[in-house]
Amino acid sequence: MVPAQPPTPRAPATLDEELLHCLGPGFPDFADSDPMRVARIRDEIAYGFAALADVAHAVSIFGSARTPTDDRYYALAREVAKCLGDRGFDIITGGGPGTMEAANRGACEAGVRSIGLNIELPHEQSVNPFVTVPLRFRHFFVRKLMFIRYASAFVVFPGGFGTLDELFEALTLIQTGKILHFPVVLAGSQHWSGLANWIHDQLLASGMVSAEDLELLTVADDPDVIADIIDRTHRHQTETYQSATT
């Protein structure tokens, strides 16, 4: 008879898990403590706003934490971040390894702020050594707010579910007019062409998106081209806003 395997130790619940599954088995009823939880969320938002209050020109860069340092997309993310930094943009990432590290590294090489928005996970993720402005969040949605609020653009490199989540959330917010239409660039045509074709051949063909929606995405490979797209759009939007308010 094969002996039973001991159960895998369960990682401690994160605050997000408690918040989103507070009625599930193993969790107490938080009804009495909800005001405290709301206050904690409020404090975390205020913490992020205060830390990033003077960030006026920044680009959020997303991609896989699993990208090795010798991968071509690591090199591309590093170069894109440097090109953006040379144009005066601070760089915001999730602060972890892989593509995030590459982008933070490029920011350091350009001499701009290298911001890392780290997140509490069941298995701790350390901040990469190229982050110069480290912030730590316990709730995903608060962290997402910071990525959006302080960004002039998104650059999205190959990644997993988290990367796709950030991509489609940004597209949804732009499409529905919740945020200003800023550039969303997919870096790496070989990786992203399949998704771009699927959106065209399936979503557009089925009438689930419009032709104008396809213009929300740009696929590019050249770091200077990516930086120029973002810089040009940012300058135009700044001039338009200033004209409208004077």
TrEMBL record:
<dbReference type="InterPro" id="IPR031100">
    <property type="entry name" value="LOG_fam"/>
</dbReference>
<protein>
    <recommendedName>
        <fullName>Cytokinin riboside 5'-monophosphate phosphoribohydrolase</fullName>
        <ecNumber>3.2.2.n1</ecNumber>
    </recommendedName>
</protein>
<keyword id="KW-0203">Cytokinin biosynthesis</keyword>
<dbReference type="Pfam" id="PF03641">
    <property type="entry name" value="Lysine_decarbox"/>
</dbReference>
<comment type="similarity">
    <text>Belongs to the LOG family.</text>
</comment>
<keyword id="KW-0378">Hydrolase</keyword>
<dbReference type="InterPro" id="IPR005269">
    <property type="entry name" value="LOG"/>
</dbReference>
<dbReference type="InterPro" id="IPR052341">
    <property type="entry name" value="LOG_family_nucleotidases"/>
</dbReference>
